[in-house]
Design a protein that fits this description.
Shape: elongated
Distance between the termini: 28 Å
Number of domains: 3
Number of helices: 24
Largest sheet: 5 strands, antiparallel
Helix content: 55-70%
């Protein structure tokens, strides 16, 4: 018979009991909230953009001046690229191009079409390549999709018979790639299969899926609303879906698992729900808070679009926490004892609390040889992390797109015809109140032409007021080449300062490539502080909760090892090209500048999920028995299955996004998926129990003076005398089979 509940219930437990009793009322409240949010989004939802700002950066000042002083060029462009072996001036080719130019000029939102036959620089030296510049009256994000579709139809119809026609540029890039759709569906289907295997019941499988989807919808709607206040990129919703599905299912899974344990222990539905929310629910709140704080910390980087991604991800994580705490107990109250209904016979499993079960046996195996497991796991992690030390940060561009897209083929044609640097020109903006001195422009142009790595320097172009001039520079190397970054720094640090110009004349190096260099540098400058803040905050929280200074140090080191290994694999695939084809990566290149920080924020938080969930069970047992070795066995034995199931779900969701065409989504999907795989296997099953076994009682060391000044926060919920009732079948007063009183193996 189960022991009765003897403690005064916390506010969290009382809420869970209320939600289970009045489930229809609570679920109705959630339905009303969902309808209201959807209505708000329909009425006042924000829009997503691909432009971004870099406050304080030189490239940003150049961009602002161009928009202000050259208003006719404020809109974005598309660039039609053509190739013919016969030459673009061939009598059979030129009339077709003239007709294409005439047709494009009639498209809506197009304010100018610049023929290559009017600009010798728009035709390659061999005469086989040319480009047609198409100027729009608005930004790429605001151009009507129908207008872009019409442009693509004209381009497709113009090719053939010895003429290749492709189109690229900001306008086409913004709308050619589709984000989301199939990946989310694949991830959800995979999660359903894993949950069915884990629970052996259709109903138990359905609860985390349904509640997570509701959380994803609400989180996505909140993100759309947030786009009114922050510049959200077009791939934000795909990113939110990736995080929301994985985290939402995980958080619900933890509570559903604890609820089923309570039912199987003989507790009532209400008691089981109350206990589940008051135990696993606390861990969910704690872990979700750590994740959200880490993500919101990205705001401190000072790059708006990076901070916006952090805000969007934090919104969906917080929503998932509220769903787990606020909706799941109501759903469980509605389902009641039918949680195990519709069992799948061949998937039914035995008792998880059986001390002879696989997870208990595995725990004892690691405890017998902790040094061997610790050394082996650490060696593998360091080996996987090795490529990370050669990481090169940058930004992907159209050259990294799949070859089936127009933008990629246009990019390649321009590189073939005009040189690799043509796809990443610099814009030198010269500003002086009262008018730019022509002599200054001559000196600056001569200095730039004499710089190593510069292939072409255009003639200066003045605005109507004559106070601003722009010079276009084409480098000899591609935008993602390290030499191109060096060229930007050389021009800024040596060439421009070394050129004598009139007093009051300001020179700024801008353009997309220069902007990426500025983003990279700003992130590098802020990254150490961000890492220290996240790690320091996690350290303080773990120290306060678990009353130990050793536990948070161990947690930080293990998390850094798993994240480092994930970094290494991402670098190996996307930068070095190892197994790139297997993951659908056609072209290697640098890693997105903001990816390491985003991965760190997400992964450090997600690793805390498993850390807290596992440690809370170990801590429960340790508080009850004061036997560190026994608590490791019990904690690992009771939680490994659910942790592994939760990790498998996250892996399935994250890896499904590797199939996306967009490089940045692929990087996130692979990095997150690999990290969770490492976390669930090498860390939780090998290194964690080995290190805990080696530490023994020292793991729970806490100076008395520090213990007195720190606040007491409990995430376990039940008091010490209630632990035994939660783990039936496990002896509390005697040692577990295979682990003696000294914590070492014994043959009993």
């Amino acid at each position: 018979m189960a022991m009765p509940l003897r403690r005064s219930e916390s506010a969290l437990a009382r809420w869970a009991r209320y939600a289970s009793k009045h489930h229809w009322r609570v679920l109705g409240g959630w339905l009303v909230a969902l309808v209201l949010i959807i209505g708000l989004v329909s009425a006042a939802g924000g829009t997503f953009v691909d432009s971004f700002t870099i406050p304080g950066a030189e490239s940003q000042r150049a961009f602002d001046l161009l928009n202000e002083r050259f208003p006719s060029q404020a809109g974005d462009t598309a660039r039609i690229v053509v190739h013919s072996d016969a030459g673009v001036n061939d009598p059979a080719i030129k009339p077709r191009l003239d007709q294409l130019i005439a047709d494009v000029s009639q498209l809506p939102e197009v304010v100018g079409v610049y023929s290559p036959f009017d600009d010798p620089g728009a035709i390659s030296e061999n005469g086989q390549y040319a480009y047609i510049q198409v100027q729009y009256d608005t930004t790429a994000d605001e151009v009507n999709k129908k207008s872009v579709d019409a442009l693509l139809k004209l381009v497709d119809a113009s090719g053939g018979n010895g003429l290749q026609v492709e189109v690229g540029g900001q306008v086409v890039s913004a709308q050619e790639q589709a984000f989301g759709g199939s990946s989310e569906i694949i991830g959800i289907i995979a999660a359903m299969i894993i949950l069915l295997i884990a629970f052996g019941s259709v109903v138990a499988m359905g609860v985390p899926i349904v509640t997570a989807l509701v959380g994803l919808v609400i989180g996505s709607m909140l993100t759309v609303m947030a786009a009114n206040f922050w510049d959200m990129s077009t791939f934000t919703l795909s990113f939110v879906a990736m995080i929301g599905i994985g985290v939402g299912i995980d958080y619900s899974l933890f509570i559903v698992t604890r609820y089923r344990e309570g039912l199987h222990s003989g507790h009532s539905v209400e008691d089981s729900i109350s206990r589940a929310v008051d135990t696993s629910g606390r861990a969910v709140i704690f872990a979700g808070t750590v994740v959200a704080i880490a993500l919101l910390g990205l705001i401190a980087i000072g790059i708006p679009f990076v901070g916006a991604l952090g805000i969007a991800a934090a919104l969906v994580v917080i929503t998932s926490v509220f769903i787990a705490i606020g909706m799941v107990p109501a759903v469980l109250g509605l389902v009641g004892t039918r949680i195990d209904k519709w069992k799948v016979p061949f998937l039914s499993r035995g008792n998880d609390t059986d001390q002879n079960g696989i997870w208990f046996r595995w725990a004892r195996t690691v405890q017998r040889r902790p040094w061997a497991f610790a050394i082996a796991a650490t060696a593998v992690l360091l080996l996987l992390a090795a490529p990370f030390f050669t990481i090169r940060l940058g930004s992907s561009d159209d050259g990294n797109n799949p070859s089936k897209l127009h933008t990629r083929r246009a990019y390649d044609l321009l590189a073939e015809g005009f040189g690799p640097g043509f796809n990443g020109p610099f814009l030198v903006v010269v500003e002086k109140d009262g008018g730019v001195n022509p002599a200054d422009l001559d000196q600056l142009g001569a200095a730039l032409k004499g710089t190593d790595g510069v292939a072409y320097v255009s003639e200066p172009r003045l605005n109507e007021a004559g106070d601003t001039a722009v010079i276009q520079i084409t480098p000899t190397t591609s935008p993602q080449d390290a030499k191109t970054t060096d060229l930007v720094n050389t021009m800024r640090n040596s060439v421009v300062p070394g050129t004598a110009v009139s007093d009051g004349t300001h020179v700024y190096i801008g353009g997309a490539t220069a902007a990426f260099v500025d983003v990279d540098q700003k992130i590098r400058d802020r990254m150490p502080y961000f890492f220290l803040i996240v790690i320091g905050l996690s350290f303080l929280i773990l120290m306060t909760v678990f009353r130990s200074i050793v536990i948070p140090i161990k947690a930080a080191l293990l998390n850094l090892l798993s994240i480092g290994a994930a970094y290494g694999i991402v670098v190996a695939v996307f930068q070095k090209g190892w197994m790139a084809g297997f993951f659908g990566v056609e072209k290697q290149g640098p890693i997105e500048s903001f990816l390491p920080m985003m991965l760190f924020a997400i992964l450090f938080g997600l690793a805390m999920d498993y850390e807290v969930f596992l440690l809370s069970r170990i801590h429960e047992e340790y508080l009850h028995t004061k036997n560190a070795h026994r608590s490791i066995t019990v904690g690992l034995g009771l939680t490994s299955r659910v942790i592994f199931a939760a990790a498998a779900i996250m892996m399935a969701v994250f890896f499904s996004f590797v199939m996306e065409e967009t490089r940045v989504i692929k990087e996130f999907g692979l990095g997150l998926g690999v990290a969770i795989l490492i976390e669930a296997t090498l860390i939780r099953l090998f290194l964690f129990p080995a290190v805990m076994e080696l530490l023994g009682d020292k793991a729970w060391y806490m100076p008395k003076w520090l213990d007195r000044i720190l606040p007491h926060i409990s995430i376990e919920g039940p008091s010490e005398d209630e632990v035994e009732a939660e783990i039936p079948g496990i002896p509390a007063e005697r040692e577990l089979v295979g682990v003696g009183s000294n914590g070492r193996s014994s043959e009993l």
